[in-house]
Design goal:
Layout: H1 6-22, E1 27-28, E2 33-37, E3 48-51, E4 62-65, E5 76-84, E6 89-98, E7 111-117, E8 121-122, E9 132-133, H2 136-139, E10 143-146, E11 154-157, E12 159-162, E13 170-171, E14 173-176, E15 181-188, E16 194-202, H3 207-211
Parallel strand pairs: 1-5, 9-13
Antiparallel strand pairs: 2-16, 3-4, 4-16, 5-15, 6-11, 6-14, 6-16, 7-10, 7-15, 8-14, 10-12, 12-13
Length: 212
């Protein structure tokens, strides 16, 4: 009988463990709301750090991005979140987030990249003009999403996707399908940006109901 080399055994164990992380149980939509705590990801945190200093977060804390610069940078340290939709329809994206005033400016440390993978469509009014729904291609690629108050958590939604340029924002809305599982990826962009909670809200659920 041949002896199995120890490196193969170790490799098999490593593959099993990493596969378990990748195949983590997805969050299930309930009553038109997908609610995800940002710190509850199976992905390596990379340049994200878990913190609790700022009040107003939910769950066990929030994540602060420490890479790039407060101005911007490439997509870094991606965090993956899987979720399954039971009730198909239009869903708005909401992010509970905070920024930080840097160099007496309020437009820094205020964004991250988001993208969605899976079988879905864009909102009803997609286009390339300011305040239109984001086109499908934009929703499927890393796109800047901004929001937050200075060291205070608030909800950001709607016309917050920013492909670049002044007065060039899009609405983060998705037509999701019942029975489908999706993967949202949140990646770091500007240093000191803080993310606490993610919501996808069905069009028949009000923002107040979802964010409560």
């Amino acid at each position: 009988m041949k002896t199995i080399p120890s490196w193969i055994t170790h490799l098999t164990l490593f593959t099993f463990l990493t596969s378990s992380v990748v195949l983590a149980e997805p969050v299930v939509e309930v009553d038109g709301v997908v609610a995800i705590e940002v710190e509850e990801t199976a992905s390596p945190l990379g340049n994200w750090e878990k913190r609790t200093e700022i009040e107003g977060y939910s769950g066990t804390g929030y994540l602060e991005f420490t890479g790039n610069t407060p101005i911007s940078g490439p997509a870094d340290s991606p965090l993956a979140y899987q979720f399954t939709i039971e009730r198909g329809g239009l869903y708005w994206f909401h992010l509970h987030c905070a920024r930080e005033r840097v160099e007496d400016r309020d437009d820094l440390a205020n964004d991250a990249y988001i993208r969605l993978e899976g079988d879905f469509e864009s909102g009803p009014n997609p286009g390339d003009e300011h305040e239109m729904d984001a086109p499908l291609a934009m929703l499927k690629e890393d796109t800047k999403f901004f929001g937050g108050k200075d060291r205070a958590f608030v909800w950001a939604s709607g016309n917050r996707l920013d492909p670049g340029g002044h007065n060039n924002k899009r609405v983060a809305i998705y037509r999701l399908k019942a029975g489908e599982t999706y993967t949202l990826t949140l990646s770091g962009r500007s240093q000191l940006f803080k993310a606490d909670r993610i919501l996808f809200r069905h069009e028949e659920v009000t923002a107040e109901e979802a964010e409560d």
